[in-house]
Design brief:
The complex is a heterodimer of chains A (259) and B (318). With 259 residues, chain A is of the alpha/beta class. Chain A has seven helices and 13 strands. In chain A, 28% of the residues lie in helices and 29% in strands. The chains are: A alpha/beta (259), B alpha/beta (318).
Chain lengths: 259, 318
Amino acid sequence: MNIVVLVKQVPDTWSERTLRPSDSTLDRDAADAVPNELDEYAIEEGLRLQEAHGGEVTIVSMGPEKATDVIRKALSMGADKAVHVTDEALRGSDGLVTSAVLASVLGRTGFDIVILGSESTDARMGTMAAMLAERLGVPQLSFASKVETDGSAITIHRQADYGYDTVEAALPAVVSVVEKINEPRYPSFKGIMAAKKKPVETLALTDLGLDAGQAGLAASATEVVSFAKRPPRAAGEIVADDGDGGTKAAEFLAARKFI
Amino acid sequence: MAEILVLAEHDGESVKKVTTELLTLARGFGEPSVVWTGPGADGGQARLAEFGAATVYVADSADYDDYVVAPKAELLAQLVADKTPAAVLVAATSEGREIAARLAVKTGSGILTDVTGLSEGLVGEQSIFGGAITVQSRVRTGTPIIAVRPNAVSPEPAAGAAALEPVSFQVSDAAKNTRVTGRVVAERGERPELTEASIVVSGGRGLGAGENFALIEQLADSLGAAVGASRAATDAGWYPHQFQVGQTGKTVSPQLYMAIGISGAIQHRAGMQTSKTIMVVNKDPEAPIFELADFGVVGDLFKVVPQLIEEIGKRSEG
């Protein structure tokens, strides 16, 4: 089975994230770069499918040179090889442009199944699986909390507000996963050593037959007009419970007309 | 006046609150027309009229529920081509975003997700990085496709005709490649949906055990609220995953958010920071969640919450 897992390098949620004043794109220098958390669940699911069905797991990542760190981490978990799309012209690409570039890479690698996290912790759009399925003309099996396949048909539990739907399709397909799906493995020492020797193909836009005008900030269908730090919330009233904390809380709710 | 398409969220009988919010927002920029997929438009019509829908395009086919997302996007693409609306508004639910995403690819249009308000020129306001930064963005290519965060706009009535207009549209075979074969609805009793609720009561690590979520449910029910949970609580299996509020769960912005026994890690704050009023109960005075609190009680939740429930009960009787 040809399994492709998409991973994204994101700014660490725990560090201070901001945008660059010059062009309103992500300030990558301001925050530590880490793998997008949900992508680790995608990698794990890819490895489990490989264990059950054989084949190869290929990591695909689009991002700056520094993204090699998250690619190595994915390889150290057990993936076989990677493709890294990196090009200065990609900076500031919106979701629509990113999906076009990734679809083009997937055309090159081929796939039986493409797995990704259901959203990234930076942009949080939750749209990439849908965009890729639309571009590639294959089934969209998104928000999966469970995946089962016999190698030709695939069934998932699609997580929803009300519970879940059981959804069926035929491979090849795009699958996005939620964190409930599995427990990602930690890279072993052996895995970390082996990852250093695994092949990583680096592609620029021209390698994909795309030119700079089709990517980046300039080609994006959306633009940031302005941004500002959210003003801090005004300090609230904090009381210690002296046996009447619940009563005081009720008084607050009444004063604000919630009860 | 320019037409604005609003995709209705409904349960086959009645319209969800978020659709009335979308209509309210749309009215500021043109004449809203609702797109209704599947059955039940007759039932929803009155409420759509109450919130100013001029026309309701009705595409009554089981295909929209039987297949994942693609049929709805295909229908909207056809309507965008036929009506050339000034914008398309959808609810920023997981499905709404996906419909918007496919529509964006189909029409070569820009998409804004999780918009909390719109200003002149359809500039959308978004709250990013866990609420740390407010961004104003706009679509500059194609028909603006805007996914609006539920609860961000207060619905205000304004009369409209809501004339039902059947749309004859045949969903393509290509859009039927992902079939829904079953639905499992988790028990949440009579409680409102998490992202739509005007009050959310969430429990976290401080509850100590799954069975103690009964206390959170009791408090929620006394207020007609939805129940949420922190990641620590869902990871521990104390409460189902779909109720998780936070970076890897739901983003909510209710009128009132109550964080009970939740320390307030950034992962959680990212999902609730834009709530209008925040109340906190936690025994640790150093818990970062207190930084967000409009009102906080430092104390044992197992003492404070039962007393609060009792007080709410007394007041509702009186």
